[in-house]
Amino acid sequence: MPVKIYLIGYMGCGKSTMGRKLAQRLNLCFIDLDKYIEERNFRTIPTIFAEEGEEGFRLCEKKALEEIADFENLVVATGGGAPCFFENMELMNRTGATIYIAPPTEILVERLLKSKNERPLIKGKSREELTRFIDENLQKRAPFYEKASLIIRDKRNLEVDDVLRLLEKQ
C-alpha cells in the first residue's frame, strides 16, 4: 500500500470527503491542499485569486505541492486544477499513488450548485453555464487527469472500501 495518496479530479467530485475517510481508515494524515495553501499564505483562496489572479494562485499551489511531496504517510486532496499546471501531475505520480475521482458532469453540477464553499471559478454561473463550463474544463483537463495511477468513474456514492479494493489491486 502506498504511503502517500493524492486524490485528483474536478471540484465537487468528493476529493476532500473521500480523503478524510481514507486517511482515517488507513491511519494516515490528511491534507486538503487548498486549506494548506490558505494556512501557508495567511489568506483565503478567493483572496489569493483576487489579489494575484489565477497565475499567482497556481504558483502558490505548485510550491505547496512541492513541500507536501517530501511528507510521508498521508492522503492529499488536491484542488481541481492542481494536476494541470507546471509539472504537478508528474510530481504527484513520482511521489505517491494518484487516484482520479471522475463522476459524470450531472453529479458535479448538482454538488457544486449546492456547495456552500465560495469557488472563484464558478461564482454566479447558472445551471446551464455551469454544465457548459464543467464540460469544457473536463475536456481540457482530461489529458492530465488521465495520467493518474487509478481512475474511478461513474460513482455517485463512492465508498472507502471501493477505493481500498482498487489500491490493493495496484
Automatic annotation (TrEMBL):
One of its GO terms (molecular function) is kinase activity. ATP binds at G12, C13, G14, K15, S16, T17, R119. Keywords: Amino-acid biosynthesis, Aromatic amino acid biosynthesis, ATP-binding, Cytoplasm, Kinase, Magnesium, Metal-binding, Nucleotide-binding, Transferase. Its cofactor is Mg(2+). It is an enzyme of class 2 (transferase). It is found in: Cytoplasm. Pfam families: SKI (PF01202). It catalyses: shikimate + ATP = 3-phosphoshikimate + ADP + H(+). Belongs to the shikimate kinase family. HAMAP family: Shikimate_kinase. Monomer. Catalyzes the specific phosphorylation of the 3-hydroxyl group of shikimic acid using ATP as a cosubstrate. This is Shikimate kinase. The gene is aroK.
